[in-house]
Amino acid sequence: MARITLVRGDITAQRVDAVVNAANSSLLGGGGVDGAIHRKGGPEILAACRELRASHYGGGLPTGQAVATPAGRLEARWVIHTVGPVWSAREDRSELLASCYRESLRVAGELAARTVAFPAISTGVYGWPMADGARIALRTVREASAESVEEVRFVLFDEAAYEVFAEAADA
Ligand code: ADP
Where in the numbering of this chain does the Macro domain appear (predicted)? Predict the structure, then answer.
């Protein structure tokens, strides 16, 4: 089973085999993690995303799925783009959020990645409560690690998010 580590920091600064992007279904960039990855990684990532749109995802990448591109100028080999669900108080979308982690790890395994960095998917613009997002992330990764993956690193952007993940990891 993969080792799970928690760090406070910027996901675009991680030296890992694969960085997971909290993308939107257009694959054409956005705010938050997505914007930061494209800004720092440069145009190679967007060009690869455009090709994927043209070849496979004309209607957009469906929520809960994951797909890889090169990582451009990031200190990583690949970016794995996944589309988290928007939080809903009316509808339970937990399975879609779990699917993001599971599918990203499956893609990481296909790439034979040994180290994978995740942000807290859906907990920014998409509004998912951090504690619930952390619980789903940790549980799913514990249950679903891919064979090649030795380390799954959660990269939390601020101290509050880090604390919430640390508490969920201890629970
Ligand atoms: P989503 O649309 O899936 O909610 P966001 O990018 O808006 O995605 O936010 C996801 C989480 O990533 C939030 O908790 C946000 O604070 C955090 N975040 C934003 N920028 C970075 C970054 N550069 N590195 C790591 N985490 C980040």
Answer: 1-171
CA–CA dist 99, 121 (Å, integer): 11
- Going from N- to C-terminal start, the domains of the chain cover 3-170
CA atoms of 53 and 56, how far apart (whole Å): 6
CATH architecture of 3-170: 3-Layer(aba) Sandwich (3.40)
Report the alpha-carbon distance of residue 140 to residue 120 in Å, rounded. Answer: 13
120 CA to centre of ligand 1 in angstroms: 6
* Catalytic residue flag (residue 34): yes
For the stretch 50-109, pLDDT in tens is: 999 999 999 999 999 999 999 999 999 999 999 999 999 999 999 999 999 999 999 999
C-alpha dist (Å) from residue 160 to 9, 87, 147, 150? 12, 19, 31, 26
pLDDT tens digits, one per residue of 36-50: 999 999 999 999 999
Ligand 1 and 99: CB distance under 6 A:
no
